[in-house]
Amino acid sequence: MKAKLSILITMMVMLFGTLGFSQISPAKIHASDSQDSTYKRIKERGYITLGTSPDYAPYEFQTTQNGKSTDVGMDISIAKKIAKDLGVKLKIKNMDFDSLLVGLQTHKVDMILAGMNPSPAREKSVDFSNVYYNGGQSILINKKDAGLYKDKSSFVNKKVAAQTGSIQYNLAKKQISGASVTGIEKGTDLILALQTNKVDGVVMEKPSAEAFAANNPSLKVIKGGFKLSGTDSSTAVALPKNSPVLKVHINSTIKEIKDQGLIPQYLKEAGSHLKSNTVNTSMSHYWKFFALGVGYTLLISVCSVFFGFLTGTLLAFMRLSKNKIFHAIAVAYIEFVRGTPLMVQLMFVYFGLGLFVNLPALTAGIIAVSLNSGAYVAEVIRGGINSIDKGQTEAAQSLGLSSRDQMRFVIMPQALKNIWPALGNEFISLIKESSIVSIIGVTDLIYQLKIVQSDTYRGVAPIVVAMVLYFVMTFSLSKVLEHYEGKFNHA
Amino acid sequence: MPKELIKIENLTKKFGENTILKNISAVVNEGDVISVVGPSGAGKSTFLRCITLLEKPSGGNVFLEGDNLVGKSDKELEQVRQKVGMVFQNFNLFPNLSVLQNLTLAPIKVKKTNEAQAKKEALALLEQVGLADKADAYPESLSGGQKQRVAIARALAMKPDVMLFDEPTSALDPEMVGEVLDVMKQLAKDGMTMVVVTHEMGFAKSVSNQVWFMENADIQEKTEPNQFFEQPTTERAQEFLSKILES
Ligand SMILES: Nc1ncnc2c1ncn2[C@@H]1O[C@H](COP(=O)(O)OP(=O)(O)O)[C@@H](O)[C@H]1O
Ligand SMILES: [Mg+2]
User: Which of chain A's ends, N or C, has fewer CB atoms near its CB within 10 Å?
Assistant: First the structure.
């Protein structure tokens, strides 16, 4: 699943990377300051956008400050200093770890600090600053198993997990002989897998492993014992290719941080947030997160139902139209959308179209879900219209009604009644499927679920809460739809 | 000399390779009540539908009050069709609308009659077909005979110059045929021009002034009812009648 996503993203980057650079190159030509358009843009706008994936304490994670959830951690502190030294403000964009690189290449963000190793594979598509931190790799286990595991050699015939697409994952694959290795996307899900005995060990960078163990008395850190190459456990800032000026500035900030020994101070600060975080891990304490998530999920669903219905109606009429061009466009659109995953469509809209128009994640999410839903709704509506007896059209025609009025007053009301249950199902599945927007950082219910998981170090409870909330939403919708179905039947 | 309302000239209709109507010519004058009879599959429905261009003729012309309908655009046909009322075998009432709304929809949307006026006229028509008390009912609650009477009233609401009926009683239970025929008889008596495809030979005989016998893609005979039923000229008509009278 994860691997597939990475391939898709890579393909999309290849596709749009070329487009993107040809789009952006004119700006480079008259960059007076230097050949660095990213730097120029940052200075002109007065802010630098950081891309990060805040589920990886103590590098970056979320905490509640004055009732608002905020990104904190060592990487965030460093990013703040980079922005300050550049003389600009810092903006933070949260995304899935896997989406970060494509976000950087499509200029959604200007730099990435996300505990990212400057691996040769990544260096093909982005640039890296000097290394700012060297953490070392550890293995996290359940404390009750402390007698069983010593280091990487103790996992013969055992299960080990690491974050998908990470250095740790590759290390586990190559160096833990005899173990089966699972890739999991989120740091919090890794812990959950460990605590529920799905896996016996989790390979993690040392500071993260220690942070988790410090907050979770049932966990223990053991040493990894991996053979590490130069960059395997190092962390650097990712930048767009061809941004030499920005790179110089960031490297000088990193040098200052090292010279002044600021890293231990940042880590200590992060630790203090971790403690304040874990004071109250009851779900009711986090009601605001869930409420916000429900709000966004509803917002996306309502907008997408509305626009999806409009798009669907339009497409259905186009498909039924005698005009061959309209018909062909509608057929092609419907088949294409139904034949590709919503996740890819979402990434296409956000990262692909994002090259030409700067769409906020929420807007991109609503557009993608609406366009997707439109294709399905179109087929439902077309089926509904076709289900109406031809005699109805003939009667309406023979009375002299225009084809518009025939549709509006005779055919559509009957079709709508017939397709109401199918349409209802479509909208209920839309609420559920909208959860995919969390991958581009829309703060919907799934996103909030992950935040609460990483905030509280509790895996299952937030899942239960989210599940119940989704059910309440879909169940209420189906009740509302039933109510209107009843109304139809009176008529 | 009575006024010529509909004139059909060399009308031909093909579905693919099959010729359903072959070179038919006929005239309907104002005040005519014409019964179209013939075996099933003869092309009677297709003939009727070609008159209002619900079916596009493959050849020939259809004149309504001197105006050729063949070759008109859909938009132009909308204007013409309101002058021709059509009643179908399966009623085709709009189930999403009440009886009253079934009657007022076209006058309001097509003729731009104001709503109060349309309602008043619709209620008068419902009175005329004996269904004033069903104005607010929905079609699903009506019997077959009642539905067909509403359908007739709905067509009349557009004040058509001519009414076409396609086997209006064929889908009805026998005990309901009478109430529909009564309404049609009254219409004929009031001077409405009518073309009625029917298997009700009693109606054809007593109400119409002409019987057209259709078979084999053509109108084989156009005669007075008395002559048609007593001394049909063609052999085919004789066969048809003997079959009908047997059953
Ligand atoms: N839309 C159509 N497509 C092809 N054939 C048709 C169509 N409508 C009618 N027909 C054929 O035309 C012939 C005459 O049909 P119709 O006019 O309904 O006869 P009638 O009303 O006299 O029973 C039948 O053989 C029927 O199968
Ligand atoms: Mg017929």
Answer: N
